[in-house]
Amino acid sequence: MKHVVRTYRIALAVTLASLGALAHAKPIDAQLDCKSTAHDFVAPLQQDGLLETKPMRVEPNSVNAFKPVKGATLTAYGFKVYVVVAYQKDDPIFKLGKGEPIADSAYGVVVWGGDKEVEQQVHAAGSDADVHHVAPFITAIFCKQ
Known about the structure:
This protein is an alpha+beta fold. It has helices at about 1-25, 40-45, 115-125, and strands at about 25, 55-60, 65, 75, 80-90, 105-110, 130-135, 140-145. The chain has one domain. It is built from three helices and eight strands; from the N terminus they run H-E-H-E-E-E-E-E-H-E-E. Strands 1, 2, 3, 4, 5, 6, 7 and 8 form an eight-stranded mixed sheet that branches. Strand 2 (about 55-60) and strand 3 form a beta hairpin. The protein is globular. Keywords: Signal. It comes from Caballeronia novacaledonica.
């Protein structure tokens, strides 16, 4: 019984700690309406000090992956954002990959959440974003123009 109570307390502490982080999170749902450009999506997040200015990775298709800065929590449709992904042609914010660029402008996020749940929330909000399964409980929300 002691072990069960201890496990419950640990689980409760972890849950409360994660809720505290989400309570101070910056929601970016409105920007995922697929009516913006990659620059208009990424630049304000960088200017507000919420997103790294240097991409952590550049894919061959020129998609740049930017991490939130340490201590910043971004959410999209209630899901915690792991990384912001974007590319815009001829924009110095973004680095060019070695292959063919994905589009003139594309942007989105990768969130911690199952693809079905994320897709429900995105469509319920009226967004035109595409939802893609990345890995178990990791999902991409993406706008391409």
